[in-house]
Amino acid sequence: MSLLYVDQLKKSFADRTLFSDVSFEIRPGERVGLIGVNGSGKTTLMRILMGAEPYDGGSFGMRQGAKLSYVEQIPKLTADTDLYHFTLEAYRPLLDLEAEAARIQKKLEKDPSDRDRLIARQAVVLDTLAREDGATFRALTRSALIGLGFSEDDLTRSVMSFSGGQVSKAMLARAILSRADLLLLDEPTNNLDVAAIRWLTEFLRQFKGAVLVVSHDRAFLDDTVTRMLELQSGRVRGTDGNYSRYMELKLDARELARKTYLKKQKEIRRIEGIIEQQKRWNQAHNYVTIASKQKQIDRIKADMVEPERDEKAIAFRFPTPAPTGNEVFVLNDLGMRFGENRVFSHLSGMIRAGQCVCLIGANGCGKSTLLKILTGQERQTEGTFKIGAGVRIGYYAQNTYDLNDANTVIEELDRAFPLIERNTLRGYLGMFLFRNDEIEKRIGSLSGGEKARIRLLKLVLSGANVLLLDEPTNHLDIASAEVLENALERFEGTVLIVTHDRYMVRRLADRTVLLTSEGLVEPRDENEDLFERIVERRAEKVRPQARTEPDNAYLRKKENKQLRAKAKQEISRIERLIGENEDAKREAETALIDAQTTNDYRRMQQLYETISALETEETDLYDRLERAEAALSDIETEEET
Fold first, then answer.
1. HEC string for 317-352
2. Global pTM?
3. What pLDDT sits at residue 567?
4. How far is residue 141's CA from residue 84's CA, in Å, rounded to a whole number?
5. Who contacts 578 (Cβ-Cβ below 8 Å, separation ≥6)?
6. pLDDT digits (tens, 9 = 90+) for 233-262
7. Could you give the 3-state DSSP secondary structure of residue 387?
């Protein structure tokens, strides 16, 4: 039985049909990867399934009662709270049950007249909490956030204070904890480091529900999915297995189709030769043969299917670069601090001409900062570095701040390269899939993938002989990423790439270097995988540390006693406020009944708003009570140890 079915779905924009015959199903527990070139409609399809985008034909549906959860590429925040409680909203049904249990207990203590009904309801609520991870969901929330790379201090920070990439991770944590029957994930690895990708991979392997994931991360797809779908030429096709298996079968099928097509073409030419010969003989029985042979050609043509061509992909190569000195970059005890925060220190080493060096490391370790130092956008706080003779740097930043949203595509290129003829620029734009009216689009209206193509083109036109690339495949589809890899493989200059794309590292790297806070680390031998070091270092950071006894136990106990008394006072104060809130809400509800009796609609509206505000305040008070009780529990636990 299918969990989700999609039947002949169609979507068009103005005069362009995005897709016209999308049909597939997802069964319970399947992990399905969805690929396709940028602009093929992957994200639009996801939004249609979530009900956030209209469609023009066909149908789709979920199994009755099934729950769907979606994590989009560029999430939007609508409310501010700390990271922990933002993520905890994944368990809103359990939080509501906890709040109800607390209200029932208060009512039992204050007014036992309805005791039997309240006790019966309390038993149902507590039983549901016991069955639905009520005792562990807070620990699961913390574990998910730590696994995705957040620190303990991050948990209490406002979610609004995080970067877009970190918000994406928070959204991802909330979605995967929601216990949905089907998770829709749109490029979930874009802002994750290797350790976080490993955590997500393990989570999805153990996840009981189904997953539909759009991703260009080939290694992630290989490690995660059990079935592949590709959105191509307006249709979806796929097969069981991971990405590598799908590509093997696709290439095999394409080669078989090509050979079959050529064989039929050859047969048609043979029969056409017979027809020409029969025409030259010009006898009555020859025309009978001609008619018979023509019918044979018509039958062959009716069954012929032209081999499928790849959808348009970018096509380029870097021009031959000018030579540089042998020593391109020399780092000498380089370090960087932001205030009291030390990002890294003691970076020493050399990058030589012609090398392709892949720089890896955990999020926040300073990889992008190092590139900015080398390009002069940041100034190091410790040590020195030297740039070799003849070096001309081309820099591909992870963000798109180097593009002017107000410019059109052609204006962006025109202003960056005023000495290049506009017709020549049009030709280059065509190679990067910007044709006709597309060159008049505003930069601000482009997708992430389209902006990535513009920035790649600017890099090609820069004439750089040393390329510094910060996560260059983040917004590229798989086909474009492979074209970029082909171009870098042929590039005769020097390349330094910051990436978590394991496929790219395996294919291109002459050297792989791990950036840590204490310095640069290279493999101890050719068989060592530095990506594993990142995972190990993350595990060390989150492993609970042994508690040490303070030097003055008396002072510590005295401090705990004061903290315990303060926590109890806070609990009593919040409980008093909850009681006052309940009294106010009861009065408002009584007044509302009177207003309904007299049909005083204005008064009714005022009372509805009052009750709604009191209910919001009540939820906040119970959250504060929960935190205060947890703080008291921590203090008492520490006193016992």
1. CCCCCCCCCCEEEEEEEEEEEECCEEEEEEEEEEEE
2. 0.63
3. 73
4. 7
5. 106, 618, 621, 622, 625
6. 888 888 899 988 888 888 777 666 777 777
7. strand
- The larger pLDDT score, comparing residue 543 to residue 185, is at 185
The pLDDT mean for the chain works out to: 82
CA dist 485 to 407, 499, 596, Å? 29, 13, 71
Return the H-helix or E-strand segment holding 384.
Answer: strand 382-387
Q: Which of 36-50, 71-85, 133-147, 425-439 has the lowest mean pLDDT?
A: 71-85
- Cβ 625 vs Cβ 578: under 8 Å: yes
8: left (phi over 0), alpha (psi -120 to 50) or beta: left
Q: Do residues 503 and 189 lie in contact, with contact meaning Cβ atoms separated by under 8 Å?
A: no
Range 480-486, long-range pairs (CB < 8 A, 24+ positions): 480/37, 480/38, 480/313, 480/314, 480/449, 480/452, 480/453, 481/216, 483/313, 483/314, 483/315, 483/316, 484/456, 486/317
Q: How far apart are alpha carbons 526 and 507 in whole angstroms? A: 15
Alpha helices in 402-508 (DSSP H): 409-416, 422-431, 448-461, 478-490, 502-508
pLDDT, residue 122, reads 82
- For 312-349, b/e burial (b = at least 16 CB within 10 A) is ebbebebeebeebeeebbbbeebbbeeeeeebbbbbeb
Cβ contacts of residue 505 below 8 Å, gap of 6+?
358, 360, 499, 512, 531
Q: Report whether pLDDT(213) > 50.
A: yes
**Torsion sign (Cα): 193, 84, 518, 378:** positive
- CA–CA separation, 426 and 432 (whole Å): 10
Termini Cα distance of the chain: 53
DSSP H helical segments within 179-217, as ranges? 194-206
- Write down the pLDDT at residue 554: 45
> What backbone phi and psi angles, to 5 degrees, belong to 372?
-65, -35
- Read off the DSSP letter of residue 52: S
| Closest of 612, 361, 12 to residue 22, by C-alpha | 12
| Amino acid 543: pLDDT | 46
C-alpha separations of 70 from 185, 201, 210, 374, 381 in Å = 6, 17, 12, 39, 42
Q: What is the DSSP letter of 442?
A: B
Looking at this protein, which amino acid is placed at residue 189?
T
Distance CA 636, CA 641 (A): 9
> Cα separation of 350 and 98, whole Å?
58
Query: Hey, CA dihedral for 498, 502, 508, 511, is it positive or negative?
Result: positive
Residue 27 pLDDT grade (very low, low, confident, very high; cuts 50, 70, 90): very high
Contact 233, 51 (CB under 8 A): no
263/622 Cα distance (integer angstroms): 75
DSSP notation for 74-88: S----S--BHHHHHH
Q: What share of the chain is helix, strand, coil (3-state, %, to 5)?
A: 50, 20, 30
Cα diameter, the chain: 121
Q: CA-CA distance, 8 to 26, in Å (whole number)? A: 15
With H, G, I as helix, E, B as strand and everything else as coil, classify residue 169: helix
What angle (nearest 5°) sits at the alpha carbon of residue 452, between those of residues 448 and 454? 120
DSSP structural state of residue 114: G
Please, which residues bridge with residue 351 across strands? 329
